[in-house]
Protein 1
Amino acid sequence: MKNILIIGAMQEEIDPLIASGNFEKKDADIFPYYVGSTDEYRLIVTVSRIGKVAMASCVQHFITLVKCAPEFDEHEIDLIINMGVAGAISNKLRQGDLVVADRLCQHDMDVVGLGYEIGLNPDFESVYFDVNKKIIEKVKSVHDAMDTEYELHIGTIASGDQFISSHEKKVFIEETFGAYACEMEGAALAQVAFSNGVDFLVIRAISDLADGEAPMSYVDFKPKAIVNLTQLVEKYIGG
Ligand code: ADE
């Protein structure tokens, strides 16, 4: 059976998914998780907590756990999905719309002082981590078959350890990285998954427009955004 690891940065980003299925909770000192299954997949669902460091350590922890723990029969993780909310960077996006990353970057990675391109970690060849095109195609066809008022956008997601709520930062992220949306974990997941040779999918619902109104609209709209997103993720995994 194939293993899919699903990670939200916050408990409320995975709660609707857990509530809709038959999951068993596994307690652990670090990164408690839930295990469930569909006809095709074993699902491991967890919370990383906020930011790139938390996400990177969470992803590496589960890649190693699934390889080593007897309960997983020495299986590998076949796909890692990050679901959660994001701020809109492109003005094509409305609150509630869904964004699937076709590539991810870190908007706060800056080694320009040593002569590197903005956003480039010198340990890697590119500013961007690309998502497997087949995975994106599958999300798109699942969304096309759904009856929803919210659009699915496919584009760059930029991550950083910052909640974006100013016009200047938003313009910087759009102009420098061509990003559609911003959040605080996806690119960390992409980097660790890439380094381990594991496929990944980052899919986010827009909770706010990453502007001066963002702190208020984020809080108000987050629960609704997560419900839309959960429907799409459930259909993707066939649960
Ligand atoms: N997640 C949701 N909205 C965000 C924003 N405006 N900045 C960073 N992460 C977010």
Protein 2
Amino acid sequence: MMTARQYEESLRKLELEVYMFGKRIENVVDDPILRPSMNAVAATYELAGRPEWAELMTAVSHLTGKRINRFCHIHQNRDDLVKKSKMGRMLGGHTACCFQRCVGMDALNALSIVTYDIDAKCGTKYNERFLKFLAHVQENDLTCDGAMTDPKGDRSLAPRQQTDPDLYLHVVEERPDGIVVSGAKAHQTGAVNSHEIIVMPTVAMREEDKDYAVSFAVPSDTQGITYIIGRQSCDTRKLEAGRMDVGNSFFGGHEALVIFDHLFVPWERVFMYREYEFTGPLVEKFASYHRQSYACKVGVGDVLIGATQTIAEYNGAAKASHIKDKIIEMNQLNETLYCGCIACASEGHPEPSGTYLVDTLLANVHKQNVTRFPYEIARLAQDIAGGLMVTLPSEADLRSPDVGKWIEKYYRGVEGVPVEDRMRILRLIENLTLGSAAVGYLTESMHGAGSPQAQRIMISRLVDLKGKQRKAKRLCGIATESGGSRSGEA
Ligand code: SF4
Ligand code: FE
């Protein structure tokens, strides 16, 4: 396994073509805006090396029997699934941001199932290729970007109907030694902190769209890949000399548009090619795993609740009964999220390939809750923090020989708490609820791993409504047809 330092050095060796604010970024690792996001991924390496977290952060490879980082592991049983949820919460609490590495883990696990299933039906050799790639990832402790979301153009049109065919990533040429692809993947979390990009189709494809039914992995610095970093609110605060106004001065996240321009992929890196009937299952399995992964937001919630209780104490309001009640509610909402990610893991099952998959219904219910509860938790945090959170002068004002004395005088709270500490905790709450970390805590909770409607469609598909009706009808004496299944059975 790599140490955090070795991970950082490994990124320095990559020759990525990255743009931000219209300019090429030559040194991604040391860029002040991007560095906090590198730090967050580095934490997944650092904590894996600490004995107290070894049980959660590492696992034994089913390929080699060696101890590996859990982010490179294929879940072998329910215990692995539960540990994945616990690891997500722990890391969310450690970084209070998106630590980015789960997407690749979820892509690896989904592909371990689907490549096996395609081979079983079509007699192909995708699983063998995939396992070779997996061994490479495990052996070198790599970070993978799981790239699923295409730009999608006109949402009412199928991939082949778009005016520009590249709006969905597709195969433009087949060669004896591989394929050539063009297109892009949007909103790619942690893209420039990754060693490998694992591409998957974004929706279930039909036969007419089979050139779009493609999955493969390429090293992130392959020629022909361009990264354009997305803006976050308050991002330029990271360029300032002081660190206090950033709120979270250690960790952050980033998203990028990743463009693939006539990119060559050798056959040994291709895991799906035109098997359109397996695009739906791949999308669903990846989405279910990633919906489980949203245990990270529970960990971020822990930090926000801790910050809120602290500001209540600093404000001298912690003993008020309505404040106590609001803190209880924040905890109740946050622990309800935790119930969901633990439940879908505990109810997991083995797929034909041997990989354990979470309970898809519960994973979708969990993610649906994630689209709502963090907003309510954030609302309560802002309620308790008070308006000062958004009217607070800057760190430079606090340090100013001219006006610093006025800040010290008028922003005092309870006796004994330095004004600077009060400002620091307010900045953290601002960072999490409407600053750059709100990208991770709120908007990503809403749209990451699929927007809310995607989960509602899955819930309606997976729930046994007829079975529930039969139960009701039987109890009140209405004649029913026989039959039944999973969640509706008595
Ligand atoms: Fe992992 Fe959460 Fe970031 Fe998704 S949002 S990559 S689950 S930390
Ligand atoms: Fe995400």
Protein 3
Amino acid sequence: MIDTHSHINMIEGLTLDEIIKEAEDNGVKKIILPAASLSDIDAVYEIVQKYDNIYGLLGIHPSEAKDWTDEPAEKIREYSKNKKIVGIGEIGLDYYWDKSFNDLQKEVFVKQIKLANELNLPVSIHDREAHKDTFDILKEHNNGSTIIMHCFSGSAEFMKECIKEGWYIAIGGVVTFKNAVKVKEVAKEVPLDKLLLETDAPYLTPVPFRGKENHPAYIKYTAQEIATLRGMSFEEIDKITTFNAEKIFAI
Ligand code: NI
């Protein structure tokens, strides 16, 4: 399996060495580490140089939009010359936490999409309670980058709109929650060639560890739940999602 979105630098209960060992012991071959804050850009770059099976995404989270300037953009251009940097992320819109700077979020989102296009890199998209604006902005401004809808939280109908655009759908631990009706429906219906697995560790921990800190090693519970929902084997879900992730990120 490949954990396509995992903030392993934010996990508090284990060291990086322990996280990676535990992940490997549980069938995780590779981990994609996205940046969220400005300081993550250096942190991600350093970590991916140190560990062979960790790859990085650079960008800033919509909640951090106020920090976006030409300086991080320049740094990302420079760092992305390194082959361990495999995409831009996580970027997007978040109308859940703070609605006071939605316009700034949109502006910074567009700038980072253009940066991804310029660098010819895939993008990990954060969309929280902002489905329509996220969709419209990507449709208008993205020119050629592969789009991954990280921690997909929309309806099956919205998923189909995204699929029509050729975007990928990443499913995380929420799919294991008993009441997650929408995500279960999406997991059942998403075309297999567009499906990715992720943990979003340390957040959104799957059952049976729901409520505790999330680790990449727990991605197997998400894979198993998707397999069960689709009447497929765990191995089939592992194989196809690994293939998709390796293709998108060229890893
Ligand atoms: Ni994230």
Protein 4
Amino acid sequence: MTSSRARLAVLASGGGSNLQAIHDDLGARAHEAPATLALVVSDRISAGALTRAADWQVPAVPLPKERNHALGELLAEHDITHIALAGYLRLIPADVVRAFHGRMLNVHPALLPAFGGPGMYGQRVHDAVLRAGARITGPTVHFVSEHFDEGAIIAQWPVPVRSDDSAASLAARVLAVEHRVYPWCIAAVTAGQISLGADGTVQGRPAYDFDLFAPEPRHRHPFAG
Ligand code: GRF
């Protein structure tokens, strides 16, 4: 089993709370984990993600923007098979996007295709959701394509917008849901249960996203009492 495990790289620019959730999830799956966290890359030398990785003795590599073009080489050196973007703000070089077609995931903190695209990251996403008056938001996990925030959608999970929400309170509730949904998707894709079909659609996804968490009552749909 160990030899067939995927080798996952997580790319993060910030604190790395999703990285933490991915690490914890793979740890909880123990010998059944379909992937090993093999590399953490950040464009910011001071990113919390690098500190976390170093604490776990996972290779943690700063890749400043002048070295962005060397990402493909770095991934090859570490035998990486899959990539999870977790708040990574640098553009992924086209050669890497092509090489990891169907094997690179991203999490976005809103329900794509709304509130996505260039410049829509962090607080700006939640500000835009509030300004628009949307009543429902939530994370989207998708395959990465050459078009920003446009790859095929693997999972979404609704988070209600409250009338007294600020961008910060909304961000915190969405982030808590990301921590559940993203590791689940990473496990499903690295295990080969979910894949990107030749026609560009997602294969193997449950008919209804909420089934993803059905066995665990704490993961029930937030609107179910
Ligand atoms: C998350 O909100 C994610 O949706 C977005 O960037 C943020 C990363 O947060 N892509 P963290 O560094 O994982 O805490």
